[in-house]
Design goal:
Helix content is 31%, strand content 34%. The chain is of the alpha+beta class.
Length: 167
């Protein structure tokens, strides 16, 4: 177990709040200041920005374009310290468009953030954003599971599809 000064939790919540405030202000540079120079940023659509400047450039276009006037709303759900200077955060952070007063379910997103403390300040080194779209896992005896097993047996018998040796 990693022991960390409790003030670190407050600093990480503050970091997330600053990210939300910068987004809501449409300030890509201030948003970027929350990230390390070599940060990785994976958007909900899978787009991967490598480095702070690429992420700032993308958000500048968004804030001046399709996300003009939007707000980033959310909260930190959990913090886990890997080391005293490295933490994994899970948070909700969703875009609220200016013509809405509440967040539509389809806009709900969850982020995994890796934060690092450098020179006494916490910054995000990596962020992965994904839409919350829970899928029910079918039981093994369900029709979808039985069909999948049958199709797998047919594919293997015909020698089509991927081979088990490539796993």
């Amino acid at each position: 177990m990693t022991v960390v000064d409790s003030s670190a939790d407050a600093a990480l919540h503050d970091l997330f709040d600053r990210m939300c405030a910068a987004w809501t202000a449409g300030d890509a540079a201030a948003y970027g200041d929350c990230f390390t120079e070599d940060s990785d940023y994976v958007s909900y659509d899978g787009t991967h920005a490598r480095g702070r400047q690429a992420m700032v450039d993308n958000h500048d276009r968004l804030f001046r374009g399709v996300l003009t006037g939007s707000a980033l709303v959310g909260r930190v759900e959990s913090i886990r310290y890997l080391r005293p200077d490295v933490a994994v955060l899970h948070a909700t952070g969703s875009v609220l468009m200016p013509w809405r007063t509440s967040l539509p379910k389809r806009r709900l997103s969850r982020q995994t953030l890796v934060a690092v403390r450098e020179d006494g300040a916490w910054r995000v080194a990596a962020l992965h954003n994904g839409r919350v779209r829970p899928v029910t896992i079918p039981e093994p005896a369900s029709m979808p599971s039985r069909l999948s097993r049958a199709m797998t047996a047919v594919a293997r018998a015909l020698g089509v599809g991927h081979s088990l040796s490539r796993r």
